[in-house]
Amino acid sequence: MLSAERGAAANTVEAYGRDLNAAEEVLGDLLEADATAIAGLGEAWADMAPASLARRCSALRQFYHFMQEEGWRADDPSPALPRVSPRRPLPRLVGHGEVAALFACAEEEAAGDAPAPLRLLACLELLYGSGLRVSELVGLPVAAVPRDAPFLMLRGKGGVERMVPVSTRARQVLGRWLAVRGGMARADLPFLFPSRGGSGHFTRVRLFQLLRELALRAGVAPERISPHVLRHAFATHLLEGGADLRVLQTLLGHADIATTQIYTHVEASRLVALVNARHPLAER
Questions:
Q1: Which of 7, 26, 144, 259 is the most buried if burial means most Cβ atoms within 10 Å?
Q2: Which residues are catalytic?
């Protein structure tokens, strides 16, 4: 149902599966579990982080709602699940200087035509320059690369398509990467970043490792860098430059503006300056 009706990504479906398996380890057969047993999950999962507990409870609520709709259960015991209201964590931030150091190191290493450094530089450009999710990046098809238009067409969470702008410098790096891509893997693979000698694409784990290694060589604390941190930096630095929150929502592919609003905390000083400069009372 998640795949066919909601268009959920494979990673989302796998996450739901893990959560339901974890519940089954405690409750036994989920079809037979009653409200009393389900209420005990709060104690069984007492040591979990609030965000993780909330995600598991959400998976179970949707699962029992689905079973009731399908007629597999006459009741829905999910109201007995523990209620959790996790705070949305603030994004981990990196400064302009740290990003500049990463790019300086990556560009120096990619000065020649060696495929591996060029691939990493292209990934860096798309993570920080276009704000792609790491799953969107590694799964990009070659056909998504712009030929005469400055944007990518990609399919994000929930199968939703969106256009993502690509800078001139990113397009230049992508052009260099495509010229040597065949030397790193089979040229007939559909993925923009294919795995070395394999039949699939570059993995998220491997990209994470390479970015940490790049940070170490660039003199940046490796624990501060990850693909998702670079996506956060894209959003934060655009807001600092004056980008509109609705535009940022579109660029990031957020279904809900509330998700994008986590970035507004970094703009407190700019908002104060805006009120002082533009409010009618500011000149009195």
A1: 144
A2: 133, 157, 228, 231, 254, 263
